[in-house]
Amino acid sequence: MLVSTYNIQWGKGRDGVVDLTRIAQTVAEADVIGLQEVERNWREMEHADQVQRLVELFPDRHVFFAPSVDIDGSSGEGGRVKGRRRQYGLLVISRWPVLTARTYPLPSYPVHGHLNDSSVLLETVIGHPTAPFRFYVTHLNYVSERQRLLQSRLILDIVADAPVQGGPITGPGVPASEYGADWIAVQKEDVPSMPRPAILLGDFNMMPNSPEYAVLAGPVGPDYGRLAEQGLFADALTLTGVNENAGITYPANGIEQAKRIDHIFVTLELAGLVRRAWIDEAADASDHQPVFAELDWNGAV
Questions:
Q1: Rg (alpha carbons) of the chain, rounded to whole number
Q2: Residue 202 three-state SS
Q3: Of the candidates 213, 199, 214, 208, the residue with the CA atom closest to the CA atom of residue 274
Q4: For residues 70 and 232, what is the distance between their CA atoms, to the nearest angstrom?
Q5: Which residue, 138, 188, 196, 139, is CA-closest to 166?
């Protein structure tokens, strides 16, 4: 199974051209994809509803969108109400059904002298035919390390607690007569599970030597380095031998330095299943580089 993360910068490539077809071609081989900075009616342009355009470009995939920013976009000429929102956020594209989805707001605060936007964690459960798994996508605060620390700690808690909370509908011990009746109108087989294995990916705006990275993946010890520890995440690139000081997912642009800030993390159950991981350094469809990870997924976790 191949997964990928890509901050698409609303499809704007290094040449300044907005081309979602080029974005789709860049990650088309992946089975499950997490995209960031996907827009819906945010600006006037061709294919302003980028969610709909990506649905068209992936006709054989399941697509789910979660806005991290959602503001009014309803005003039209002559007082006419358009009945639409201006949004941008996160998108999951999956070869298998997205069984459930939930969006969690992450702490975001104003920063004097900077535009700052809200961040969310998108949780999905992917219905792989062998065994389902949780697939999380996020885009952490770009300007404040303190806010990324708060966001990372909350993400760790959310992911750890989700199997205990269960899915969006739960019903342990409910008699069979309750299913399919009255307000809930679901059958027992429709009640979704919340599997333990999880993949967390996205644009974290943090490098491996940052304190917020240590929140998610643990600190570096003097003797054994960074340990893949229960309750934390392991970095797919590091698991496959890529040095934490190597690799660039956000090339230098004349203002900012080159960084490795886009990551694919896995829970401990999946650490031994990661076979390959790499950064597509040749991709030019965005200001970021996509990251890929191949897992030997057979459900035996």
A1: 20
A2: strand
A3: 199
A4: 31
A5: 196
Vertex 211 angle, CA 238 and 154, to 5°: 95
- Positive or negative torsion for Cα 5, 11, 13, 19: positive
Distance in Å from the first CA to the final CA of the chain: 14
Instruction: Work out the widest C-alpha separation in the chain, in whole angstroms.
Output: 69
Topology adopted by domain 2-170+183-295: Deoxyribonuclease I; Chain A (3.60.10)
Task: Write down the pLDDT at residue 76.
Answer: 67
Listed residue (85, 203, 91, 96) closest to 142, CA to CA: 203
pLDDT tens, residue by residue, 223-272: 999 988 899 999 999 999 999 999 999 998 888 899 999 999 999 999 99
Under 8 Å between Cβ of 97 and 127: yes
The Cα–Cα gap between 94 and 291 comes to 16
**Helix (H), strand (E) at residue 211:** helix 211-217
Helix axes of 50-57 and 20-27: crossing angle, nearest 10 degrees: 50
What is d(CA 272, CA 130) in angstroms, rounded to the nearest whole number?
A: 18
Whether 61 and 70 have beta carbons less than 8 Å apart is answered as no
**Strand partners for 265:** 200, 235
- The model's pTM is 0.96
Q: Is 219 helix (H, G, I), strand (E, B) or coil?
A: coil
Measure CA 85 to chain center.
22
What is the residue type of 14? R
Which residue stretches of the chain have pLDDT < 70? 76-78, 299-301
